[in-house]
Amino acid sequence: MNNIIGALSILFQWDCLIALVLGVIAGMVVGIIPGLGPSAGIALLIPISFTMSPAAALTMMVALYTSGVYGGSITATLCHTPGTAASAATAIDGYELTKKGRGMEAVGVCTVASVIGGCFGALALLCFAPPLGRLSMRFSALEYFLISCFGLFVISNMAGKSMAKGLFSAALGLLLGTVGMDPIEGVQRFTFGVMVLEDGIDYTPVLIGLFSLSQALILVENTVKGKATILDDPNAGLKGHRMPPWNIFKKLIPTICRSSVVGAFIGFVPAAGASIASWLNYSMAKKFSKNPEEFGNGSLEGIAASEAGNNAACGGALIPLFTLGIPGSSATAIMFGGLLMHGLIPGNALFTTQAKSTYAIFLGFLASNLLMGILGLSLTKQFVKICKLPNAILVPIIISVSIIGTYALNNSLVDVIIMIFFGILGYFMKMMEFETAPLVLGMVLCNIFESNFRRALILAKGDLFGYLLTRPISLILIVIIALTVLLPTIIKIVQARFSNRER
Q1: For the residues of 105-117, what is the DSSP string, one character each?
Q2: Contact in structure between 72 and 94 (CB atoms under 8 Å)
Q3: Beta carbons within 10 angstroms of residue 220's beta carbon
Q4: Which of 75, 117, 232, 289 could in theory staple to 312 by disulfide, Cβ–Cβ 3.0 to 4.6 A?
């Protein structure tokens, strides 16, 4: 409680409050615009937050994360164009209600369900993160090495349709992370005599290039193909009441509560994420519903299940990030870079020496969900007009912020060149369906991965297997990694056997 009281004093400082409001508004904006989403938004915030306090910077990022997931539901409901993958299930019934002239009512249910789910995820973060942080005190170099392996396998497994492409991206990130000085022996590696590479490649310009500049290039491509605007009439379907009558809404409460619990748990599981939480809760709601025939034809229950689940998953996804340094999605992978940039190392230190700042971030996440609900109910018509913003205006803004922010990091044109290079690389990677998140995570985790592995070899004194047997936590982690790697194959085998039996 002393830490929470101290956290409140930090959160109510002007810089944190301004960061909170800006994060919520920016998140709704990037969520509404299809193709951007929380990942690109957080990447743009990295250079902007460079001079901010750690609490204010991370509060702004987590606020953008949760409101970005919610923002995608607005266009999903009003024009059948999900701003994020997590809102795809919402589009099924939301747009049907919009066509029936009940778009405002559908957005109201989206908003309330998202707020309840997000607040539940924030409470789960407050309750379960500290015990896991204390558990990390028992970790040695071997455990940290295995956790970094787990993070790489998780993000590679969940990124895109091909695990092989995900692993390739992660391996490329690890290779780029080795550029510079050897962390153990202090010799130069892969610098090729270039002095600026002696300190390694800063992952911040890489983040901005891969997630922001590459997205701007994709928007340019969409413009060339005639996809510059999304919605012809931004006021279509915005009629009627903001919320359904109480006698209808009270029937949605059990669905919202169940979806919040399930969504937070799914978010906690690395590689699951908000989109899986959304679809799983949608299918569960249909199975438990007394009127399953309404699903697909304008069901408020389906909307409530999807939105409560995906926003609860945001809070769940932050638990392994802050406690173990395991990001379960591209957005949290970028946030991991933001944590390290501000000197916040995931693990026990966040809940002891840096506890007040950590709890300020958690309370800011809770407050951002409440503020998101207020803005969502009052400014829906104004936010949805962003869909009319042509790419000819949007693209220069993204490119300008990317270049200015990157240069401001170290006042270096080298960083800008690196950002542009990785922006072009990210564009071609997305064209060939190679996910960029594993590459970034590989660079971020490289030092942890390599240095702890080599320290573990030193501690093992030549008998790594014997040393492993004395570390029960390491054995558990190895089993978890094996299950993570083999689970997709096991699922495919089981599905194939069931389909053969049905035939």
Answers
A1: HHHHHHHHHHHHH
A2: no
A3: 16
A4: 117
Cα separation, 61 vs 26, in Å, equals 10
C-alpha neighbours within 13 Å on the C-beta side of residue 70? 42
CB 150 within 8 A of CB 484: yes
How many residues belong to the chain? Answer: 503
173-219 tens-digit pLDDT: 888 888 888 877 778 888 887 777 777 887 778 877 887 788 788 87
Q: Do 291 and 299 meet the contact criterion of CB atoms below 8 Å apart?
A: yes
Are the CB atoms for 35 and 219 separated by under 8 Å?
yes
Cα 141 from Cα 453, distance rounded (Å): 7
Cα 124–chain centre separation = 17
Query: How do strand 188-189 and strand 180-181 relate by DSSP bridges?
Result: antiparallel
For tokens 């004093």, the residue is 9
3-class DSSP assignment, residue 180: strand
Cα–Cα dist 81/464, whole Å: 52
Instruction: For residue 189, list its beta bridge partners.
Output: 180
How many Cα atoms are found within 13 Å in the side-chain-facing hemisphere of 191? 15
Give the start-end residues of each E strand in 184-241: 188-189
pTM for the whole structure: 0.69
